[in-house]
Design brief:
Blueprint: H1 14-27, E1 33-35, E2 45-47, H2 54-61, E3 64-72, H3 73-81, H4 91-102, E4 111-114, H5 123-135, H6 147-154, H7 163-167, E5 171-176, E6 209-212, H8 215-220, E7 229-236, E8 242-244, H9 248-251, H10 260-281, H11 289-292, H12 294-305, E9 310-314, E10 321-325, E11 332-340
Parallel strand pairs: 8-9
Antiparallel strand pairs: 1-2, 3-4, 5-7, 6-10, 7-11, 9-10
Length: about 350
């Protein structure tokens, strides 16, 4: 039987690909060779023997228990942690790879379920809190969320220092033109405090710089009409400490935690982190923005208070990515262009019954 080797792209986990696999390759325990991956099919890449990863996967699997009504381990790890997200890594290939890692062909065929943890901070808990902040109490909450627990969860979503340049090397901000005169570059950063209105991330009067990963994303975020013109400024953003809320299940890695208890605790908090990501992404009507933005402002102020410099989140109006930079002076202006909005598209859904 020909021995099959795996590569980093089989897994798609940041902890494995950026921390563990480089160590395994460097010390030679995985018998690294340059060649084609036997699982995802990547060509001419660094591959290792799957069993070299057994200790990390065994700790992860301690968070799951046999359950006749459960799902396969391969399916659970894909759902919970976005493992095996390479297009070629379907469930059959994932089971085969897991069997090689664990040296156990039977366990991958058995149904499992996650360890059931009682958690207090849940998506419903956040929904209750946001309702209180918007409509009943703003500064002194009846039942504040557990900020220590929230800080622990957010700590799992720290964007790698090179993540911004992986998204784009240049970021963009747009302003709609009210006449034919373009805005100068020095007027394209965050507005001064007395003009800083309520934003998705910033309370009124506090300057944040909102940037899009593409010019199209930046323009779409200002909700233009067909035929309008906009100034689009380009900025260079250095490596910063940011929280990445685009896809918490992909960003959080169970493999860099110390034990199964920590892994189970983080896994139980992933639904809350996903809900927080939705908070920053969901569309808000301008007429209700003054109070609808309060929960996301609360979240971003807390993230800033923890020492982060920005938050990365999905755009609700384009396929791009947004960055709310808490300290606008960190972004260096590069240039500015005027663009025309040729077309604005609309997608509709039927209302829920």
């Amino acid at each position: 039987m020909v021995r099959k080797y795996c590569c980093a792209d089989c897994f798609g986990d940041p902890g494995l690909t950026q921390s563990i696999l480089p160590k395994v390759i460097a010390d030679g325990t995985g018998q690294p060779i340059q060649g084609d991956c036997g699982f995802c099919g990547n060509r001419d890449t660094t591959t290792i023997e799957p069993s070299a990863l057994s200790q990390w996967f065994e700790m992860l699997l301690d968070c799951y228990v046999p359950d006749s009504n459960g799902k396969s381990l391969a399916s659970l790890l894909a759902d919970d942690w976005r493992l095996f997200d390479h297009p070629a890594m379907d469930e059959a290939h994932a089971k085969e790879l897991l069997a090689e890692i664990l040296d156990d062909g039977e366990i991958v065929r058995q149904p499992f379920a996650p360890i059931d943890l009682l958690v207090s901070e849940t998506p419903q808990r956040w929904n209750d809190l946001r309702d209180e902040m918007m409509h009943r109490n703003r500064w002194f909450l009846d039942e504040p969320i557990n900020l220590g627990r929230l800080a622990e969860l957010l700590g799992q979503l720290i964007a790698p220092v090179n993540s911004l340049t992986e998204i784009t090397t240049l970021w963009h901000r747009s302003r709609l033109l009210t006449d034919d005169k373009p805005f100068p570059l020095d007027k394209m950063s965050a507005p001064p405090p007395h003009l800083a209105g309520h934003g998705r991330a910033n309370p009124a009067g506090i300057r944040y710089l909102y940037l899009g990963s593409t010019a199209k994303t930046a323009v779409a975020e200002v909700r233009p009409h067909t035929g309008e013109r906009a100034c689009v400024a380009t900025f260079q953003v250095p490596s910063i400490l940011a929280v990445d809320l685009r896809d918490p299940r992909r960003s959080a890695s169970p493999f860099i935690l110390e034990n199964a208890e920590q892994i189970a605790a983080i896994r139980s908090g992933l639904p809350l982190l996903e809900r927080l990501g939705e908070e920053l992404t969901k569309p808000v009507q301008p007429s209700s923005a003054a109070f609808e933005y309060i929960p996301s402002q609360y979240l971003c102020e807390f993230i800033k208070n923890l020492g982060y410099q920005g938050v990365i989140y999905r755009s609700s109006v384009s396929e791009g990515v947004n960055l709310a930079l808490f300290f606008p002076e960190l972004a260096s202006p590069v240039g500015v262009n005027v663009v025309s909005v040729d077309r604005v598209t609309v997608d509709i859904t039927s209302p829920r019954p």
